[in-house]
Amino acid sequence: MTDPRSFLVSIFNAAVAAADPEKTIRDHLPAKPKGRTIVIGAGKGSAQMAAAFEKAWKGPIDGLVVTRYGYGARCERIEIIEAAHPVPDAAGLEASRRLLEKVQGLTSDDLVVALISGGGSALLPSPAPGLTLADEIAVNEALLASGAPIAAMNTIRKHVSTIKGGRLAAAAHPARVVSLVVSDIPGDNPALVASGPTVPDIGSREEALASIAAYGMKLPASVMAHIQSPAADAPRPDDPRFAGNEVHLTASAGVSLEAAAAEAKRQGIEAVILSDAIEGEAREVGGVHAAIAREVATRNRPFTKPVLILSGGETTVTLRAKGKGGRNSEFLLAFAIGIDGIDGIHALAADTDGIDGSENNAGAFADDSTVPRMRAAGVDAKAMLAGNNAWTAFNAVGDLFVPGPTGTNVNDLRAILIR
């Protein structure tokens, strides 16, 4: 192998291809209804899912989905709206209003197809009565800075919303709702993807309040008053309005990791998958992965080199400063520090949707030369990590990975090649 980075990019591409909406949607088409077919959706992969559904569905449809700015796709019968992510904006507020309006007045003969992928939580602001868009933005900013796992975040989000936590599906009753979900959640609980607009879960107000306290979140007084009130309760999964609805997981991190491993083996490199559901502080997870890579590189255990180590899931970042970065670049900066001076290790960490954090990169590359090259460029890697400034560090040495929007979102991919 002459170019480890090209190999790692081919692994990323294989993982993304396994979640290609054209294949996954075609494999999960619902039965046609007697009445109308309405398509709704939200998430960073929803526009590509909508385009794939249009192509595969033989019959009339009408629909509306919302995706992140720059993530749109060409559709003829399904309207695509773009809104802000990761912090909500007025365009998302209008999209939520129109989605709720789209499912009004349906009958039991009608079918609603919900195309849901990660990122939908921010794209669907719909404040509960007495709250405002500013309140939802404050909640989102507090969540992003808290270091809380995604499951806890989405339990909180659904208790300040009129669209999340199954409420969009409840609004469509008595129509049958079939949700096609691309999971970016460790454990693949579809009720947590995009805070479950069409899939309710059992998460309670009490659990939301416990997470707010555990992670020291400072939320507006109006938000706290609402969550402490029974008015915040979300529908339960046993609510009769959900009887007869269907939920199908069309793509997930586990499937994509298997595809990545198969591609490595096709190229002659054995692959091992640590887990598809790794959570925790990004820098700490990076340190653990670095320790495993060092052990393989120097002692040939617990795996025999050459080997590709793969993992998925969604780490978190507790903001300590106002640097530029994302969870994958922060993971990888900690990893680079951990393998400094150990030859033969090459890594890529990237979000499968193509964007890590708020910049235009999906993640970054690292190897044993990363920290020395940063030092030569006048960049202190440890100081950058302490300041949540991983993007700046990798940008200084040209190691950012920028594939652009991929059209899907099955969480993070970490690929570590040990030669």
From TrEMBL:
InterPro entries associated with the record: GK-like_C_sf (IPR037035), GK_N_sf (IPR038614), MOFRL (IPR007835), MOFRL_assoc_dom (IPR025286), MOFRL_protein (IPR039760)
Alphabetized UniProt keyword annotations: Kinase, Transferase
PANTHER family according to UniProt: GLYCERATE KINASE (PTHR12227:SF0)
UniProt protein name: Glycerate kinase
Phosphoprotein recorded as keyword: no
Molecular-function annotations in GO: kinase activity
Key word Secreted present: no
Positions of the MOFRL domain: 308-412
Pfam families membership: DUF4147, MOFRL
UniProt organism field: Mesorhizobium montanum
Domain MOFRL-associated stretches: 8-228
Superkingdom per UniProt: Bacteria
